[in-house]
Amino acid sequence: MAFKGQCKSPQITIRIDGTLVAPVDYHVLGKSANWLSFEGVSGVSIIGGALDAKGPSLWACEASHTNCPSGATTLSFTNSNNIKIDGLMSLNSQMFHIVINGCQNMHVQGVRIIAAGNSPNTNDIHVQLSSNVEIINCSIKTGDDCISIGHRTKNLWIKRVTCGPGHGIRFL
Model pTM? Predict the structure, then answer.
């Protein structure tokens, strides 16, 4: 599902009171690049709730070396400004949990990310081509990079983030 700017309102809040659950059939999401995508938006806040992408069935397909879709990122922000993510939980992403690409002034706080310790390619928070990004008071428990930092990332502030059993913070 893609949300594309230009937004008419200067502030939009999306409050999740519960859990959004992906379809059981991993092919439904797996053929897409993203489950929830925000492109060219400004002033969007996502508050609370959980996103369960049902990744384990896709991971099992990949482990069997059969013809599997590549998998979807759970939550993606591209070319967006003044974004807040507060208190969100991301469970069992097929691929990346959260991608921040080409964004300015992002504030990620109180986010919990959970997947099995042997979950493949579930990079948790990936930041690239972005500036003025804060990742604060987050708990990340998966089998891949907790935070991956791509090229041309500037003014990234990471504070009070617990990480493990994955690879920690990685510069790509």
Answer: 0.96
